[in-house]
Amino acid sequence: MYISAMMRKTPGTTSIRWNEQDLRLIEQLKRKKGITKTSELAREGLRALAEKEGLTLSRGTKS
Fold this sequence. Notes:
The chain is α+β, with helices and mostly antiparallel strands. It is built from 2 helices and 2 strands; from the N terminus they run E-E-H-H.
């Protein structure tokens, strides 16, 4: 499984490419939690994937 995140020129925006397995997990999240916003979905999706891999996410600080 891979998650590649690329930062764009605009601060605070991230583009993420998901593979098929990840997309199925995200569809489940949509149905379970009723998420409609893309930003919420990305955040919840990353959290769920991290949990599945046994990782924890921490919020970075901007300098």
